[in-house]
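Narrative of accomplishments. A recurring question from our advisory board has been how the design workflow behaves on a single, concrete structure rather than in aggregate. To address it, we present the structure tokens for one chain from the evaluation set, followed by the sequence designed for it. No filtering or post-editing was applied between the two.
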């Protein structure tokens, strides 16, 4: 899948974009995409999946997630749930720096927004607490929407400790050329992660020398290529474990690893536990659900 650069259009008479969707009027974005705006997404009910950079997990009974700028992600909405509501609020760094930052009363709120650059998933308790606010947007005028949005941000900034999605803050260089190249890189990895992937091959794929490719990748993602590739593959391994009855050896090969020791080391690096322990815990959880 390609990563698309989503252009967010704001009306000149508004400071942010807030859209309310239903199962009959869903968001038009259907594939990997990114944008330089912050994004706060509320899904009233239903189950679906979250795919943000290399992070993947399922959700149930709705979702409340906050993304910082330039985080590649798939849409979060669920199409199979009737009568659900999805609200998407998007705002720019300019809105933060030129408007919110003018008020000293918003100091805590600004610190909270900064934490979103690693992505945040909120608890069910918080989701329920702000649900009424999100559902009001559909019938509010522009002034009411802005005040309601500030109220939501204030509530979220004072909620219980939210869960960060990414361990490290990744920032992307959003030059048009970098976006096009990174889109090709991500597409290639997504299509070939079960095979050997060499930086030299990817460099040739996007028309760069190996050294230039490594420098570009580091500048764009703030990490080296091997780390990115290994984490991507480990997240895919988690998907296999979570959704299929499959052995560790099978998952290892399906995710492009050939050395059991190296696979176990990388899995532990990103999960703080071995594949065997992860699988044991997963089986215990499944047995409790039966």
């Amino acid at each position: 899948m390609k990563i698309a650069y989503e252009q967010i259009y704001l009306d000149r008479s508004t400071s942010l974009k807030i859209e309310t969707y239903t199962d009959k009027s869903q968001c038009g974005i259907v594939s990997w995409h990114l944008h330089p705006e912050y994004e706060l997404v509320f899904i009233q009910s239903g189950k679906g999946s979250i795919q943000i950079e290399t992070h993947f997990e399922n959700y149930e009974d709705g979702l409340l997630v906050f993304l910082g700028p330039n985080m590649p992600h798939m849409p979060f909405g669920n199409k199979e749930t009737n009568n659900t509501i999805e609200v998407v609020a998007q705002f720019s760094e300019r809105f933060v720096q030129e408007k919110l930052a003018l008020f000293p009363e918003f100091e805590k709120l600004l610190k909270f927004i900064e934490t979103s650059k690693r992505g945040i998933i909120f608890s069910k308790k918080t989701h329920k607490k702000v649900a009424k606010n999100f559902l009001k947007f559909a019938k509010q005028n522009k002034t009411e929407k802005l005040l309601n949005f500030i109220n939501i941000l204030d509530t979220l900034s004072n909620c219980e400790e939210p869960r960060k999605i990414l361990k490290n803050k990744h920032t992307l260089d959003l030059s048009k050329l970098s976006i096009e190249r990174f889109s090709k890189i991500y597409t290639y990895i997504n299509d070939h992660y079960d095979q050997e992937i060499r930086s030299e091959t990817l460099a040739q794929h996007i028309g760069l020398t190996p050294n230039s490719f490594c420098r570009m990748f580091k500048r764009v993602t703030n990490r080296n290529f091997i780390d990115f590739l290994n984490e991507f593959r480990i997240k895919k391994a988690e998907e296999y474990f979570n959704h299929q009855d499959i052995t560790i050896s099978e998952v290892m090969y399906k995710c492009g690893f050939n050395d059991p020791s190296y696979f176990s080391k990388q899995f532990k690096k990103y999960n703080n536990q071995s594949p065997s322990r992860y699988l044991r815990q997963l089986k215990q959880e499944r047995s409790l659900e039966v």
